[in-house]
Amino acid sequence: MRALRYYGANDIRLDDIPEPEPGPGMIKVAVEAAGICGSDIHEYKSGPISTPVQAPHPLTGEQTPIVLGHEFCGTVVAVGEGVERIAVGQQVAANAALWCGQCPPCLEGSTNVCQSIGFHGVSGGGGAFAAFDVIHERNAHVIPDSVLPSVGALLEPLATAIHAVKMAELHPGDHTVVFGAGPIGLMVLSVLSAMGLESIIAVEPGASRAAAATRCGATTVIDPFTEDVRTRIAEITGGGRVGASFDAAAAPDSLHVAIDITGVHGRVINIAAWERGVEFNPTSLLFREVSLHGSLAYTSKDFDDAVAHAATRAETLAGMITSTIALDDVITAGFDRLAYDKHDEIKVLVRP
Length: 352
Prior knowledge:
Distance between the termini: 10 Å
Oligomer: single chain
Pfam families: ADH_N (PF08240), ADH_zinc_N (PF00107)
Strand content: 25-35%
Radius of gyration: 20 Å
CATH class of the largest domain: Alpha Beta
Order of helices and strands: EEEHEEEEHEEEHHEHEHEHEHEEHEHE
Number of helices: 10
Protein name: Enoyl reductase (ER) domain-containing protein
Cofactor: Zn(2+)
Organism: Rhodococcus oxybenzonivorans
Family: Belongs to the zinc-containing alcohol dehydrogenase family.
Number of domains: 2
């Protein structure tokens, strides 16, 4: 079968590889839709970042070249020995996280920060930019018939957003601010919209993404290129507490502004992957006792919550999909375009 494999920065290839078959505890999925993630583009432009190059990944035993694709949904076509929970014919979305189950974070339930953390379609073990993929039964989440495969392919980043919102510990009546209305930022907005918050402010300069932010639940969208973000947020909140801000932008000044506008005992949640560092003065956290948190991926419970959210917000989530392309076009119309061309895409799906 044809599959997209990563060799290194600016080097991905559609190769012919053997069709995978499920071993014990594994399931085989006919891929129906797979999303191109921002992390895929970072890996393509600036990698290797997370892909194992110098040595095999400890959980997969693989190193480059590896098959890419970690956001996907499909139909189960075969199961390996010992599989009990998942059956042939079910539609599943894949939890891409790989964890050891033995290190201290795993034993306390924080599998998303496993000391050997990896991701299917990033760290080896298969990938979804292909007609078929094989995953562990524990990584498969059955999705209801009401959720289309295209929306099912969004559940992996949605679970990431859900995990980040849980970390914020918001309360009804709080204000909140989301920097960046790309896929993760939009999904954070969708999750926040169900929480009874006083206001949900998005900071986004792109017109199409700003419109998407409103559809996903933002009560106000601020253009940082034409408005003073700090002043506008102060006007909107009227002295009320910004309980949390989320940086999904990794823009030059987004983290500094997020810290400045977050209220007493509020939390700044960084979800963005930064290609380069920024200067940061920790004193800015002191006088309001603001805390800064990194948020990585999700747990299995977060993924279950993503399935439940999608069942009620499927139309909103589907609105984030701006293009669907064939696997044969994934390099030119997918990776090259998203990495190097000016575009207004939000989420691009690949159909094998």
